[in-house]
Amino acid sequence: MLRQLLTELNMKGSLQAIETICRQIKGGEDFSIALLQAECDYRSHRALERRVGSAKFPTNKRWDEIDTTLNPKIDFNTVKNLGRGDFISKKENLCLMGQQGTGKSHSLVALGREVCERGYSVKFYTACSLVNALEEARERNKLSKFMQDIIKPSLLIIDELGFVPFSERGAALLFDVFASRYERGSIAVSTNLSFEKWKQVFGSIELTAAIVDRFTHNAHIFVYEGESVRLRQAKKKKEATK
């Protein structure tokens, strides 16, 4: 009867755990609690898997994989603490600005995974892939739906802003993303350009000023300065082969 009820309720986690629990626990109340806890754990794990899968992170980077001693000027601990998600609840933004290879993308992935674990929804794009997706949606007359999807996540991550300049149309579409999420949802950006140089990406001075104004309002800004970890690793490999 119990198995039948669990099946009807689609309680897969409890069904998986029932035999083990039966062997370990004889008390009826303890048994029920343990069984229901197993279901809660199962559903929580499945929900996390869905959030992480939907985020489309490019890697599985974690905070413990960053050697903070390599670039001690970077305040990794404060960035990591943002993983509690308070800035997302307040609809605040995040900007990691600085040199290539210093851990900006790694930090965004690690942060994104952590807030997923805390129940927030996340979407990850490189700036180039986001603009391409926006332009494709526009050409297919699905831009309105795509913009709705962009607004939904608790946190939108835009990585590598500044690596590729956009067309006038692409820049305008990206502006719409920043404007649509303004005070409605958080955006986390990594960029190799200071704000005054964002004109190199967006072209128009007026458009750049409008984007920076919206994004920096209530934003957490961190400068990543130091030596490229990838370059350092490449140097070590070269020296090892000598």
Defining key terms:
single chain, 242 residues, alpha/beta, Rossmann fold, 5-stranded parallel beta sheet, 12 helices
Secondary-structure map:
Blueprint: H1 2-8, H2 12-24, H3 28-55, H4 76-81, H5 86-89, E1 93-98, H6 104-117, E2 122-126, H7 127-139, H8 143-151, E3 155-161, H9 168-181, E4 186-191, H10 199-202, H11 205-216, E5 219-224, H12 229-240
Parallel strand pairs: 1-4, 1-5, 2-3, 3-4
Helix pairs in contact: 2-3, 3-6, 7-8, 7-9, 9-11
What does this structure look like?
It is globular and about 70 Å long. The mean pLDDT is 89. It has a five-stranded parallel β-sheet with strand order 2-3-4-1-5. Helix 3 packs antiparallel against helix 6 (104-117), helix 7 (127-139) packs antiparallel against helix 8 (143-151) and helix 9 packs parallel to helix 11 (205-216). The N and C termini lie far apart (71 Å). It has helices at residues 2-8, 12-24, 28-55, 76-81, 86-89, 104-117, 127-139, 143-151, 168-181, 199-202, 205-216, 229-240, and strands at 93-98, 122-126, 155-161, 186-191, 219-224. It folds into two domains: 2-51, no CATH class; 63-232, P-loop containing nucleotide triphosphate hydrolases (Rossmann fold), CATH 3.40.50.300. It is an alpha/beta fold and 242 residues long.
